[in-house]
């Protein structure tokens, strides 16, 4: 039996909604890439795939680096779950700093709205909290704009994140997780992505010391710290100085881009990213190792000379001899302790 026009439109709408929740738009449901959009027409295209669908220009958060934004087809999606990944615990500071840089860009477009940072007691105990007095100086964020929710367990943190992700009163939601917990599976990330799409707000999933695994996030960025270059002055680079914070960024997963590597610097004065050029990248390399390598298992340090300020070891006046217990006390000193 032929379907009526109303039933056909209902099925079409349900298919489109399912495609949005799953983060995919079939070609037959998507507008062509060359389509033009009228500002007065309410189009609903926020998630795109390369060569299949088109999106509105304001559907993405531009990072401000031309090559990176072009690789991401405009930037990070505003109404979706984005994953910021740290492979090791020591990368927690770089991951948090990059997330705060993105929050600074978001607050430029949505001033006055707070940001909720959710995490477990384990992650905050391991990685710590952002320094409140440094938020404004480094990222232009007022301390009262950044709210924290510390949950005792992961299941509680996921519940708080899902409830917060559907709120339009927040500029963004950050969920910070350590490791690869079983509860943070594909289903849980799909729910977060669906909440972000419904509210039209970004949700950032910060993964600390974790291995890459399948998630519903359209984009995964792997972030580590990059060496800082010397500060630039009128006379040139200032030797021995430490320049702006830098991030080494890899596109680990994207529905609109191929894998790529970038080195970004955060400008706290302009509150913007800059890409490091080839010359600056070469100057950032430190030719001197932090710790000298040992050879054949021996200490490479030169032998020390004679110590003239102290008496010889073993003499009655040496500190080592004075610290030893006397002969009558030696048996009691070395004897076992009594219980009770």
Write out key terms for the chains shown.
340 residues; two-stranded antiparallel ribbon; 13 strands
Describe the structure.
Helices cover 30% and strands 19% of the residues. It has helices at residues 5-22, 66-71, 92-109, 121-127, 132-139, 154-165, 186-199, 278-283, 319-323, 327-334, and strands spanning 60-61, 76-77, 81-85, 115-120, 146-151, 172-178, 203-208, 219-226, 232-233, 236-237, 246-254, 261-267, 272-275. A nine-stranded mixed β-sheet has the order 5-4-6-7-3-8-11-12-13, with helices on both faces. The chain has a two-stranded antiparallel ribbon with strand order 1-2. It has a two-stranded antiparallel sheet with strand order 9-10.
SSE inventory with pairings:
Layout lengths: L4 H18 L37 E2 L4 H6 L4 E2 L3 E5 L6 H18 L5 E6 H7 L4 H8 L6 E6 L2 H12 L6 E7 L7 H14 L3 E6 L10 E8 L5 E2 L2 E2 L8 E9 L6 E7 L4 E4 L2 H6 L35 H5 L3 H8 L6
Parallel strand pairs: 3-7, 3-8, 4-5, 4-6, 6-7
Antiparallel strand pairs: 1-2, 8-11, 9-10, 11-12, 12-13
Helix pairs in contact: 6-7
Brief overview, please?
By secondary structure, the chain is of the alpha/beta class. It has ten helices and 13 strands.
- Rg over CA atoms, rounded to whole Å, is 28 Å
What distance separates the N and C termini? 91 Å
Across the major sheet, the strand order is 5-4-6-7-3-8-11-12-13
The helix/strand order is HEHEEHEHHEHEHEEEEEEEHHH
Q: List the uncertain runs.
A: 24-54
Sheet of most strands: 9 strands, mixed
Percent of residues in helices comes to: 25-40%
Strand content: 15-25%
Total count of helical runs of at least 4 residues: 10
């Amino acid at each position: 039996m032929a379907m009526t026009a109303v039933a056909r439109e209902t099925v079409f709408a349900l298919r489109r909604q399912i495609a949005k929740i799953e983060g995919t738009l079939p070609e037959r449901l998507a507008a062509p890439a060359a389509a033009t959009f009228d500002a007065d027409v309410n189009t609903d295209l926020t998630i795109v795939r390369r060569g299949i669908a088109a999106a509105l220009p304001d559907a993405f958060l531009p990072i401000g680096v031309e090559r990176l934004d072009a690789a991401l087809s405009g930037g990070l999606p505003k109404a979706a779950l984005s994953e910021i990944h740290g492979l090791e615990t020591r990368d927690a500071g770089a991951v948090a700093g990059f997330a705060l840089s993105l929050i600074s860009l978001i607050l430029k477009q949505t001033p006055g709205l707070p940001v909720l940072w959710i995490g477990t007691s384990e992650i905050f105990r391991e990685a710590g909290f952002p320094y409140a007095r440094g938020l404004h100086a480094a990222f232009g964020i007022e301390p009262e704009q950044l709210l924290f929710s510390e949950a005792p367990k992961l299941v509680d943190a996921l519940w708080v994140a899902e409830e917060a992700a559907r709120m339009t009163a927040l500029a963004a939601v950050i969920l910070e997780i350590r490791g690869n917990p079983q509860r943070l599976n594909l289903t849980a990330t799909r729910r977060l992505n669906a909440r972000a799409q419904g509210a039209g707000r970004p949700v950032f999933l910060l993964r600390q010391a974790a291995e890459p695994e399948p998630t519903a996030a359209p984009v995964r960025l792997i972030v580590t710290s990059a060496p800082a270059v010397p500060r630039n002055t009128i006379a040139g680079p200032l030797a021995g100085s430490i320049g702006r914070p830098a991030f080494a960024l890899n596109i680990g997963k994207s529905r609109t881009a191929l894998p790529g590597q970038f080195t970004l610097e955060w400008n706290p004065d302009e509150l913007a990213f800059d890409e490091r050029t080839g010359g600056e990248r070469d100057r950032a390399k430190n030719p001197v190792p932090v710790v000298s390598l040992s050879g054949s298992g021996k200490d490479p340090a030169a032998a020390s000379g004679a110590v003239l300020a102290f008496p010889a070891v073993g003499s009655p006046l040496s500190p080592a001899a004075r610290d030893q217990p006397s002969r009558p006390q030696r048996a009691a000193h070395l004897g076992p302790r009594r219980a009770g």
